[in-house]
Specification:
The protein is built from 5 helices and 2 strands. By secondary structure, the chain is mainly alpha-helical. α1 packs antiparallel against α2. The termini are far apart.
């Protein structure tokens, strides 16, 4: 009995038009041939056969790349467009910054500590509040003892 694998993800399957190629691939290959072959024939007499073939290949290869390369479901021109957008148009670092609450609390604590030390230095020789002479309490205690 024959066994045929059927892919589970049917969204990746592309319809083929001719020669087992998609419309996009046919368009890119046709454009490459229509530009590359005349380039070869027109430059063959001026620069020689081998350099003309190399020039034709150099002209046709980018179009072949556009036809065949695909990454994560995106063709090469979309990948190139996204790369140009992120590196040229919207270039620059965009760091993700948050407000660090612990750093703010630490800075406030340091400022309070420096205020306390500065007030302690200016109040040398003075008694702290509540530790001075209490005249009223002595009178009340004296009355209770009688």
């Amino acid at each position: 009995m024959a066994f045929v694998n059927i892919p589970k993800d049917l969204s990746r399957i592309k319809t083929k038009v001719a020669l087992n190629l998609t419309k996009r691939q046919l368009l890119c290959f046709g454009t490459a041939v229509s530009i590359g072959i005349p380039t070869y024939f027109f430059t063959r007499g001026a620069i020689g056969n081998s350099p003309a073939v190399l020039l034709m290949m150099a002209i046709m290869l980018p179009l072949f790349l556009l036809a065949m390369y695909e990454k994560d479901g995106q063709p090469a021109e979309k990948i190139l467009r996204n790369y140009i957008r992120t590196k040229i148009y919207w270039a620059g670092t965009r760091p993700y910054k948050t407000e660090n609450l612990y750093e703010i609390l630490e800075m406030e604590g340091k400022s309070i500590a420096t205020e306390n030390t500065s007030t302690a230095k200016t109040a040398v020789g003075k008694r702290p509040a509540g530790k001075g002479k209490s005249h009223g309490r002595k009178k009340i205690r004296a009355k209770r003892k009688k």
